[in-house]
Amino acid sequence: MFSLPQYQALREGAGLVNRSNRGRLRLTGQDRRDYLQGLLTNDIAALSAGSGCYACLLTAQGRMLADMYIVETGEAILMDLEADVTARVAAHFEQFVFSEDVEVADASGSLAELGIFGPLAADVLGRVFGTPDAAPAISPTAAGALGVLASRTISWRGAAVTVISRDDLGELGFDLVVAAEHADLLAGALRDAGAVDVDASVAEVRRIEHGRPIFGKDMTEETIPLEAGIEDRAISLTKGCYVGQEIIIRVLHRGHGRVARRLVGLTLEPGAAVPAHGAAIRGGDREIGTVTSAALSPALGRPIAMGYVHRDFVEAGTAVGVLGNDRSMPAVVTKMPFIHAAATSEHRG
Question: Is-contact 28 126, C-beta < 8 A?
Answer without folding.
Answer: no
